Amino acid sequence: MRVHKFDAWGNDFLVLDMADVRSQGDATGPIFRDPSLINWPAAARAWCDRSVGVGADGLMLLERIDDVNARMRLFNSDGSAAEMSGNGARCFAHALFRSDVARGERVYRLHTDAGIREVTVGERDADTVVASVDMGEIAPLSPPQGWAEIGTHPDRPVMHLTVGNPHTVVGVEDVNDVDLLSLGRKVPQVNLEVIAPGPEQHAITMRVHERGAGITRACGTGACASAWAALSWGLVPQGGERTEVLVHMPGGDAIVTVHAPTRGRVTLTGPARHVGAYEVAWQAAMGSAS
């Protein structure tokens, strides 16, 4: 099978078109005509492995509904399912954009396990697009199991939020002084972000330990949750009805617009790059899907 690899601020994903999977059934066998029989978690673990596979933070399955709508399923590199990914959504929309004949700005509706996400794609060059995702509403979330035993300093601001997937954001003085790997492993059921203000007035600096992937170079939903928390705590000043926050991550800088397109929602904007196409062994996807 052929997968396409995309990169968004160092957060990388493999995209597999389900139409290509079903076409394998003509030559390979009936299992590919019924994708529910395929062991996608095993495929994600094998193909995303950076030592023996292509290497990626996750595997996304693309299924076209029509010219505008597409179903997006996401598996983390450890094989677990994820409801949503902001960077993944931008990479996924780039995959749709590449397969379309027409060029110029396009709008896609992605059907994810967290609901529908609308993505606007504009071409920058042959391999890179700029994509903006309406990430939906930000809402409070209960603390993850075991959070009370973590032992964070009581003066540190903490916010538990959902952006379609769970996040815990912690304010710190310096994100590089935190043993993020150890802290993230104590709450593996959430995406954990540590943030600090600046260095610019309307900016924050962020590091992330992602659920199902570990420490990654960037996280789109994490950038959104972090910008929301930073604005709530006063780490960045209000910018009127809408506030644009620059989120510095090890992999690159995200632009998060809080209260856009409407109040209570956030929009994530940044580049998504096509890295290349890779042939992967379909045997990794064989076996019981249960």
Written overview of the protein:
The chain is α+β, with helices and mostly antiparallel strands and 290 residues long. It folds into 2 domains: 147 residues, Diaminopimelate Epimerase, Chain A, domain 1 (Roll); 125 residues, Diaminopimelate Epimerase, Chain A, domain 1 (Roll), CATH 3.10.310. Helices cover 19% and strands 40% of the residues. It has an 8-stranded mixed β-barrel, surrounded by 4 helices. A hairpin with a 3-residue loop joins strand 13 and strand 14.
Order of helices and strands: EEHHEEEHEEEEEEHEEEHEEE
Largest sheet: number of strands, sense, barrel closure: 8 strands, mixed, barrel
Shape from CA axes? globular
Give the strand tally.
17
Which structural class should the secondary elements be placed in?
Answer: alpha+beta
Overall mean pLDDT stands at 90
The neighbouring-strand order within the major sheet is: 1-2-3-4-6-7-8-17
Assembly state of the chains shown: single chain
Classify the fold: give the CATH topology of the largest domain: Diaminopimelate Epimerase, Chain A, domain 1
Q: Determine and state the CATH class of the largest domain.
A: Alpha Beta
Low-confidence stretches: none
- Annotated CATH architecture of the largest domain: Roll
* Rg over C-alpha atoms, rounded to the nearest angstrom: 19 Å
Strand content: 35-45%
Distance between the amino and carboxyl termini = 22 Å
- What is the domain total for the residues? 2
Assign a percent range to the helix content: 10-25%
Under CATH, the homologous superfamily of the largest domain reads Diaminopimelate Epimerase, Chain A, domain 1
Please report the number of helical segments. Answer: 5
